[in-house]
Amino acid sequence: MPLNLSVSAPERCYWQILTGEETVWDPKTGSEEPLVLRSFLFLPGNLPQLKTVRNSLCVHSDPFADLDSCPTAHVDDLFPFFMRHAKQMFPMLACKDDLRKISDLRLPPNWYPEARSFRRKVVFHAGPTNSGKTYHAIQSYLAAKSGVYCGPLKLLAHEIFEKSNDAGVSCDLVTGEERVMADPDGKPAAHVACTVEMCSVTSPYDVAVIDEIQMIKDPARGWAWTRALLGLCAQEIHLCGEAAAIDIVTELMYTTGEEVEVRNYERLTPIIVLDRALESLDNLRPGDCIVCFSKNDIYSVSRQIEIRGLESAVIYGSLPPGTKLAQAKKFNDPDDPCKILVATDAIGMGLNLSIKRIIFNSLIKPSINEKGEKEMEPISTSQALQISGRAGRFSSKFKEGEVTTMYPEDLKLLKEILNKPVEPIGAAGLHPTADQIEMFAYHLPDTTLANLIDIFVDFSQVDGQYFVCNMDDFKFSADLIQHIPLSLRVRYVFCTAPINKKQPFVCSSLLQFARQFSRNEPLTFAWIRRYTRWPLQPPKNIKDLVELEAVHDVLDLYLWLSYRFVDMFPDASLVRDLQKELDGIIQKGVHNITTLIRMSEAQRMLNLDSSPAGKQGQLPGAAKPSSGEAVEAAMAESLASKSLASKLVRQGRLTPHMLKQLRKEWLKQQTEEERARAEDGSHSERTRRKKNNPKAH
Ligand SMILES: Nc1ncnc2c1ncn2[C@@H]1O[C@H](COP(=O)(O)OP(=O)(O)O)[C@@H](O)[C@H]1O
Ligand SMILES: [Mg+2]
């Protein structure tokens, strides 16, 4: 068990006793020289030390209480009592050798005997984004008699599934939430496109493609790439990804006795970093994509663009796949007036986009560190390259890509980030299996699942090329449903369901599903309709949109569970239809997203909606549905408690209907004023620039 080096000497001593370590740091001399633990305890002068241990850990029970009344007692007499007490407090000590053995994660190649029974040919397609890596790997996949494509996203699995079937190579689709068989009778095809977590490590294939292999370093999902790399039973394995992963892959393949052939690729289209920031949205051109790292920035930039009389498409991570594709299509369509894209880094992978210029609105991306704290760090070189790489596309009209920032002060940082060499990846992710956790639970029956994971991670041993993936999401779900009576296996599966823990409705749905499950009540179509308050109305503002996105995620959760517990989640195909319908409703909403943003702004200004646009987490199950009446009712209710408007309503001088009318008029007026201001602003800015730089045009 690793020691926390910051603890005080007595605590260190205590831990070493508990964990049975043979040597101890001498707190008196500060010397690192090893002392034999028992002799350290038996030194007569160490009795006060033992008392301090007791006090610092607030252990006042037998046998330590006797220490006070019996100052002359020989510590040797206490040792058996001490150990008994320690084992009660820390039950894992009684079976620590077994636990160490179960959590031994060294030699992962040996976990896949089928793959180890022959030598696989491994080809690494290395290069930047848009260099044709996936294209070339897929050529081998299509030419093979059988194949598996493992992608990082559902959208990419879908893309290969469609490409393959279009090319006359019958291909199935397997993702966590979806199984589509190419054969109408459901006979499995020889080719399958899947998300990497879903690939089979027992089915034989001629060719396997593992896309975006650099994600082997991902703190949470890296294990899935490691598993695919070590476990796929394919004669040929094609890896596509950043050159930063070549070393780690070569090292891992050394342990399996397989050689790696590296094929390097250059970008198909050149890309240049501009010397000028965009500075103003007035300088936007067709084919521009503004990259933001928060939804609120997306909303405000789209609104600013609208004020300038331009149309924009919007893509961010929590939109359903159909909506993302519809927005991408709108942006790519040469006949559509929408020529600007506002997006998060969700565009880094998996969508075909005809982008000429990437403009970073900011270079700071909020992230959650290992301690679960929010950090505001500049994006990594790898992330910056991935996003910038989307500018200029081989098959689009933009043969040359450009990259810049919105603000001049960010440009230097962008250049620094892009010019930094990408660090080679040092380690690949691993995670415990359900079997291992089950064996832990057998030894520690009274321990919660989240604690089992902690103890597992503490006990686990890994080789230098590996790390244990962060299991915070798993532990979050485990804590959420801990009080619900479920078997360990079922509990484990519920906790592996991918959920967005920032979405309260999705979290409470996991809880609700688990509760129904434990009561043995199947979650039927009728139930899920009631639960989500179907039929849902098109969104009227951003809050509604966020709620609808959460409902879409809840339906995803249902579908995910339906493949693991068919009997308890029996209506997958009906729920899928419902989800498609919802995707359509969201698509329409996002099509008019600037109207939704305007409505939210207006409501906020009228003090009707105290939550910021984009604030997440109104539960349809707990709060109002998104129906028109409900919105009006909520407005009236909200009015009853706030501002001048509330006074007027209370005095009967204003009715909710009159207020609605006022809002409409006010909104119209506000838009007109903003447009006029924008025209004014762009005119004066152009004049100013002309004055400063007579050559500017
Ligand atoms: N040799 C080629 N012939 C035709 N299209 C290609 C070729 N190489 C790449 N492409 C197209 O260029 C785009 C980028 O290629 P892709 O393989 O996705 O790049 P990467 O995987 O390196 O990011 C894709 O639309 C792909 O179909
Ligand atoms: Mg690719």
TrEMBL record:
The keyword Methyltransferase does not apply. Its cofactor is Mn(2+); Mg(2+). It comes from the Eukaryota. Residues 662-685 have a biased composition (Basic and acidic residues). Residues 686-697 have a biased composition (Basic residues). Keywords: ATP-binding, Helicase, Hydrolase, Mitochondrion, Nucleotide-binding, Transit peptide. Residues 273-441 form the Helicase C-terminal domain. This is ATP-dependent RNA helicase SUPV3L1, mitochondrial.
